[in-house]
Amino acid sequence: MTKSAIKKMKKKRVIILGSNGFISSHVEKILKDKNISILSFPRKKLDLVSEGAIKTLKKIIRQNDYIFFAAAKAPVKNIEMLIYNLKMLRIVSESIKSCKIKKIVYLSSDAVYADTKKKISEKSIVCPNSLHGIMHLIRENYLERIFKNKLCVIRPTLVFGPSDPHNGYGPNRFIREIKKNKNIYLFGKGEEKRDHIFINDLSYFISDLILNNFYGKINIATGKVNTFYSIAKRIVSISGKKIKIKFIKRNEPMPHLGLRSFNVNKLKKLFPKYHLNSLAKTINNNFHKY
Q1: Residue ranges in the chain assigned as alpha helix (H)
Q2: Strand 151-156 relative to strand 259-260: parallel, antiparallel, unpaired?
Q3: How much is the average pLDDT of 169-174?
Q4: Residue (of 187, 154, 153) closest to 170 by Cα position
Q5: Which CATH number fits domain 3-160+197-222+261-276: 3.40.50.720, 3.30.450.20, 3.40.109.10, 3.30.360.10?
Q6: At a CB cut-off of 8 Å and minimum separation 6, what does 198 contact?
Q7: pLDDT tens for residues 209-236?
Q8: The model's pTM
Q9: Are 281 and 137 in contact (CB under 8 A)?
Q10: What is the pLDDT of residues 114-145, one digit of tens each?
């Protein structure tokens, strides 16, 4: 990178709303490595559901700032959490709409899409069947109405990585259970297929999307699916331990019709040179970090 390019990048400033999250903290690190000027606001530093936050942000945000809106109480499990997140949306929007920002990047979710057996693209039907998905879709639509051509909406699939705080069903939980010498329990036969993206890869894409000239909606996934059973088998093999995989009878239908697959042509077009390792290789390379 030339000195003039570095100097130009240093002039950019990114405001991160919700900077203490699993994803946003990794994005912040990458931006810092790129020598980007950052102002980060975790919940403890700025309460984004308080009216006082409007005045604070209006004083801080400057012309041509880049905003990364990653703050949310998630996953949304009840109406109270939904209302909380929509109140946050109003506060953030009121704070920013009168500022001449360069770009606002919103961290959404693939939960906004309707269940389908087909590959999901950015043109797929948005019809969430969860409060979490409803929350994100309302936020997306509201931000789009206000910021229009300044908005970039990111819809990631399932994310995994050593520092994930949610311990969700999948690679993170399986690895942690094995490290505790516990058996792995799968729903049904672990046959549902899902796409999982590693936190470092996701954060790279997001950091670049914040700074580049892309506007609109984009899915971030690998484009490949694996069954939970195959993931569990791979992790047991990597561990070298005599861990058993056991099965729990389902009381409800498989989530998302048992399949969540993505068309990632748009992502590949934006990042033609970026290589994603297979899920198995990524787990193998990062197993020791858990």
Answers
A1: 3-10, 22-33, 52-60, 79-96, 131-147, 171-179, 199-211, 228-239, 265-270, 279-286
A2: unpaired
A3: 96
A4: 187
A5: 3.40.50.720
A6: 159, 160, 161, 277, 282, 286
A7: 999 999 999 999 999 999 999 999 999 9
A8: 0.94
A9: no
A10: 999 999 999 999 999 999 999 999 999 999 99
